[in-house]
């Protein structure tokens, strides 16, 4: 039986790249997204060992139920890639309270629910990996990132708490700080004057996620940064 990888938040960017990389490496891949429109097509592309699951990652009960279904249908997950990271933009007066809460739910509460669902199986298996897609916004709050930055900061702090609790159990929790603009059709349309090297290639971010799951236990990383070589920082 193939090892199982869950990708939370599957879309045409990082989520799809994560799924393709782990499928190529021999994993059965669970593609989790709020809508099946994209994930079903990706599952068909990846083959019989990839399945699409509909789940609102802001709903803890839905997350727990979906993880249970994945374990029943594909096997006990040994890798969780929490790529869900939606947010709204605006300053503290412009954003609405419901949107603020939703951003926190997807980024932080969804991660907590997913970690609780997969950790027991990983412990029983003797180890596993949880990789979280973070953002530079987790380190600083901009005037227009009142919701996104605070949600990502909560996510980062939660990931660190998970790491300190789960590393001794052999479960490697890590965070990729994405610093830059991910190469997507919509970002290309918004920035048509930018050269290729301005963008972060999702396949290269996926390579970083794969590397994190392969690290030897004596030298685990918690937080790594991914930025294009031309990014000013």
From TrEMBL:
SUPFAM superfamilies: NAD(P)-binding Rossmann-fold domains (SSF51735). It comes from the Bacteria. Gene3D superfamilies: NAD(P)-binding Rossmann-like Domain. InterPro entries: NAD(P)-bd_dom_sf, SDR_fam. PANTHER family: OXIDOREDUCTASE, SHORT CHAIN DEHYDROGENASE/REDUCTASE FAMILY (AFU_ORTHOLOGUE AFUA_5G14000), OXIDOREDUCTASE, SHORT CHAIN DEHYDROGENASE_REDUCTASE FAMILY (AFU_ORTHOLOGUE AFUA_5G14000). This is Short-chain dehydrogenase. It comes from Sediminicurvatus halobius.
